[in-house]
Design brief:
By secondary structure, this protein is α/β, with parallel strands linked by helices. The protein contains 13 helices and seven strands. The strands form two sheets. It has a five-stranded mixed sheet. Strands 6-7 form a two-stranded parallel sheet. Helix 4 packs across helix 5 and helix 10 packs antiparallel against helix 11. 33% of the residues are buried.
């Protein structure tokens, strides 16, 4: 971690007056982690919502220029002032101190962010993505997007595996999907949106209403409409096969009764139909499957031939639904 070069900088507010007395002076507190005595630029954060407190980050413009096109242009054009005896430029920015801190740690500290391999808090991901987008940092932006694309994957079979990258506090619910939609909208990352919208539909409605204010109204409507469309499609496909196939092709009473029970379970739990990609498929919930050449199918069993066909049919339906998933939320096609 980057270490402060002077404890004096953080012990009291620092003031810097501009030569033009008509312009306001900058009052801030030095960052404990990023205050280098040989730094030649002070990034001054915006004040927080509870007061005018601002944090100054004294860092190296040349080092930032290696990572950011914005700071590279500034480095080429900069004319530092030396009103305090040192060549140092004050740069007030609109970013929060927290965003600046995450950004500078990502730039200065090797290992602060390991994309696609380590769990990373969403606040950190959001801050790095915002800053990398704003200050044109191609490498950092690409790394954060690659990390998010692994969580909000385009491949349905990897959806569960990708959650290995989610922070522990995100595993209790799927509210992280709402934050992912917001991040994607703000920073133009369309590739993660279909999976993020899908996961948002799996949030319990009582919990969803506590967080949907984070979304813009159009995206809130997309989640609600998408949930209804997916539920209808899942139930339509399951019922048509369980009922029609059972009546037309299978004459074994016990097998048909088991199918009928499965249909009733689906009807009773229709609200969970959107969980199709993150929970076992309905055919996997069958308690017992008769042997391939069994002469007798016991109560609660499904015959082998029906099970094989059901498994194949269900997997095909799920794959088709996944491929069409963006359209359920009025989004563009998958970006792969």
């Amino acid at each position: 971690m980057a270490q402060a070069q002077s404890s004096e900088a953080t012990s009291r507010p620092v003031k810097r007056a501009r030569p033009n007395s008509a312009e306001p002076e900058h009052t801030f507190t030095g960052s404990p982690d990023f205050w280098f005595e040989d730094g030649n630029i002070i990034l001054i954060s915006a004040g927080d919502s509870e007061g005018p407190s601002k944090i100054g980050f004294r860092v190296h413009l040349g080092f930032l220029a290696r990572h950011s096109e914005f700071f590279d242009d500034m480095f080429r054009l900069a004319k530092p002032s030396a009103s305090d005896g040192r060549a140092c430029t004050n740069l007030p920015v609109t970013d929060s101190a927290e965003d600046l801190d995450h950004f500078l740690h990502a730039v200065y500290d090797i290992g602060y962010f390991v994309p696609e391999k380590e769990r990373t808090p969403f606040t950190q991901l959001a801050a790095m993505l915002r800053m990398a987008t704003k200050y044109i940092c191609p490498k950092l932006r690409a790394d954060v997007i690659a990390h998010l694309e692994k969580i909000y994957t385009t491949q349905r079979y990897y959806l569960d595996v990708s959650h290995d990258l989610l922070p522990e506090d995100c595993l209790r619910n799927r509210v992280h999907a709402i934050h992912a939609i917001q991040m994607a909208r703000e920073n133009d990352v369309p590739a993660i949106m279909p999976a993020a919208f899908y996961l948002a539909t799996t949030i319990h409605p009582m919990e969803y209403v506590l967080y949907n204010h984070i979304l813009v109204p159009d995206d809130d409507r997309r989640v609600i409409a998408g949930r209804a469309r997916i539920t209808e499609k899942v139930l339509e496909g399951a019922w048509s096969w369980l009922l029609d196939h059972a009546l037309e092709h299978c004459t074994i009473y016990e097998c048909r009764q088991t199918r009928w029970t499965a249909m009733q379970d689906l009807a009773r739990n229709a609200s969970s139909a959107t969980n199709l990609f993150i929970e076992p498929m309905p055919h996997e919930g069958i308690g017992s499957v008769a042997l391939k050449n069994a002469q007798v199918v016991e109560k609660g069993q499904i015959c082998y031939n029906c099970f094989v066909e059901w498994e194949r049919d269900e997997d095909g339906q799920y794959e088709n639904l996944w491929q069409e998933l963006p359209h359920y939320f009025s989004l563009e096609d998958w970006i792969r």
